[in-house]
Amino acid sequence: PADTRDAAQPRVRSAPAPVTDVARLCVCDLLVAQCDVNCCCDPDCSAEDFSLFTACSLPVVTGDSQLCSQKAAVYSLDVEANPPERIFKLIDQVNPSIFCIHTANYKQALYLKSPEIPTPENFDQLLDKFGGATFSAEPDGWNLDTDAQNPPDANETSRYEYGVPVQTEDAFLRLPSPVVSSWCSDANPAGFLVNQATKCIRSVSVEKCDSIQALSMLFYINSSILAVPKSSQMVNITVQSVVVQSLNGMRTLLSSSDVLRLPMVLDELCINAVLGVNYHITHTDTGEIIEAAAAFVLGAISKEALSIEQSFEISFTQENTQPVPLSGNPGYVVGLPVRAGFQPQGYPFPAAFLSNKHSQLTILHSTSTQDCLAAQGARAPVLFGYNMISGCKLRITAAMKCQPLAQTLLDVLKGQSFPEYVASFGNSQAQDVLDWVPITQLHISEQMISHTLQGSCQIPVSLGIEVKWTKYGSLVNPQARIVNVTATITTTTLKQLPSGRERIIPVTSSVVFTDISSPAEPSYKAWPTIDIKLPFDFFYPFV
């Protein structure tokens, strides 16, 4: 009918602005702040890097292939140029299929939101919502006005991405750090989700300390942070805590952090000078900053001091999550604790992996008394890459019962809750079940201390943990990855002692790290050697 066609006319729109900027999309960009070989769309690559490329591993970059019309980024190399250079073109690509998407008006599908992790508290709610054969994922309403859903700044980033400088109302959040020398440079921006800790030297003068901006608390909190890049929504930096450090190094936490303490000269001392700042940023799962706090360490500077050392740190935490200490990103760092946990029985989800204390693999901690019964509960974290051994001595008397003694020794060796899994990477998350390696537990029985089995008792005397790891990823920057963990309990048979007799047995605990990485194969094959003896005049008349 005519009225139906007339009603449909206002719905005809021009092609919507692309949600994904293909000129900034690069799936072969795998290394952070480094140039990927033959990745022509890598923004970290310079003209010198492009001149060394042999081909573009990704010649065409597009967004959603189901769209009727979209932009496509085309990359190629001009090998005839001297030096070779990269060629970039942005073209319009039309989908020849008659079944294509003209307008992407489902806003919830335009960004990835982290799924809600099932827990015992929300399991019934999620089961009611998603437990059926089908469930609805439609938004509350469909908006057919494509002009409204594609504003002029549709291509602008509406969230922070990894490594993007945290913007403030005047520039960016500064994290002073040493650049060329050990002196502080205030031009270092804090990158989003990049946890950093720096130390640098600052030149000071006690007579002018009240005029040095870097010694004042205001220098670090006076600029509000933008919730998302290029937005008008501001997040103020609040003072979380203030610690005052004396000249002898003693620190005192102030009861109130609302008071702003500015540097000033008092009795030939510069007091309230900033010695350290610790930023803590809270963000959402969509990359929006919602809270910012700073913890300060203030101190006094004597007139003899010409410079001071300042320390700065920044950390990021997602809202409604508990911060978990990491031991590397992604691979383990030598000297940091091996992360471990266990999965409660009957719990079908891997969200409770990190439920043991400190989320670390631990062994028996040796004490000065070397008494095993007194050492119960004392644990030392297993540090990646460090072979460790500890132990104690057990004094056995005739009055001791076998089963309670065996259980006590097992608790001394393994702890109250020995973990079942170890994180394969230093930054493995609890919900990533494939990133966790089960601990294989073995039991070995040694020879008997007595020659008779009558009245004998089996007691554990040692725990040996072997951690096998390999180098994972690029040969330029390999990452340490744990692939296997074996815990071996060794027991021995002990005869019941006569009344009045006692025996001392050593109990040990050890950790060994084994590198099982395959050696890198050379890019060339060595020429074979021939072991023969030539005649004495073979080179005659030459020497």
Automatic annotation (TrEMBL):
Would you say which domain of life the source belongs to? Answer: Eukaryota
Keyword Acyltransferase, does the record have it?
no
GO CC terms: MKS complex
Q: Which GO terms of type biological process are on file?
A: cilium assembly; protein localization to ciliary transition zone
Tectonic-1-3 domain ranges (all copies): 158-318, 328-515
- Name the UniProt key words of this record, in alphabetical order: Cilium biogenesis/degradation, Glycoprotein, Signal
| Record-annotated Tectonic-1-3 N-terminal domain positions | 15-122
Which proteins does it associate with, and in what oligomeric form? Part of the tectonic-like complex (also named B9 complex).
Q: Which family does it belong to?
A: Belongs to the tectonic family.
Name the UniProt record assigns to this protein:
TECT1 protein
Species annotation: Helopsaltes ochotensis
